[in-house]
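Protocol step 4 of 6: structure prediction from sequence.
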Amino acid sequence: MDCERLFQRFVRYITCSSESFHERAFCLMMEQELMSLGLQVERQEIGAKIGSDGWNIHAFLPGTGEPLLLCAHLDTMPPGVGIQPVLVNGDIRSSGDTILAADDKAGIAALMEAVTMLVESGTAHRPVEILLTLCEEVGMLGAKFTDYEKIRSKEAVVLDFDAVGTIVNRSPAFMRLYFEIHGKSAHAGLAPDAGINALKAAAAAVAAIDCGFVGALSVQNIANFRAPGLTNAVCSYAAFDAEIRSYEESVLQQLMADMQAEVARACEKAGATYELRTERVSDALYVPEDHPLICALCRAMEACGVTPSIERTFGGCDATWLAANQIAAINIGVGMKEAHSVQEHIALSDLEMLTQILMRLLCV
């Protein structure tokens, strides 16, 4: 492995800004690099559909045996413009006023270095399929709108978690709920009893709904409580948003019903009414621990001196949409630490180890 080339590759990627919806420059860079390596490269022009100036990149390197899809996302969180990386004692950090963008450019750098090594060395390897997606950070939109008829692989490794050695094989089904409470306006001073206070009804409902972990399998949260108006008028409208995540679909459905029941009770008591809109963000992801892909990845990690750790997460990533399209997809750690913050950093040794693991996994 050319460690200096890997380091310079990572620096080149993170200094090419690609905040969500503004990935075009980085798309061009990756497209050109993949083509220069001789891969078959195709644009998936989904940017206009999701409000991005970029596109998904789909590439293929022929080999022997069954193909493996490597997936990472092109976009970053803000503040991601003007990144100035600093290397201190083997640790790569931002200068402190931006993110580093190791999420997810560490994953892209490692997969690109591994593919470069395969092309240069002529080492026998399985076919490598690459999917680089837009707008993962704002709802996994690139993966959601991927043209899956073009994807050849039945197995996929997503490079978008933290510690190297971590294999995420399970993530929850995820629903968002949008509640609107309707009361009746009246003058708060002259005729308060003629009104129905939607704010009070909404507040009572929110107070009755648990947030955080609700059992071992599920978590839920409430946000965006709003009740615009004036103090001299009984509040006639209030609203709030919620989300529920659960590994079990039946539990998810019950939690949704319980939340709606709390809102219904609060509205009935106040004389208010409510409307509910729901949004299915993603289905549950689960790849069994004894799946051949996980076994192969564990062997690759162990051969590199890394102890694998199979874990579940309540977060989401592109693997969710791959799984929804009948691809056995797992997410692995790339070494990023304190992602989504200006304290984000990554050890260069972790980036090198990730590249070695990918090489072990891909070689026949």
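Step 5 (inspection) to follow. The first strand starts at residue 40 and ends at 44.
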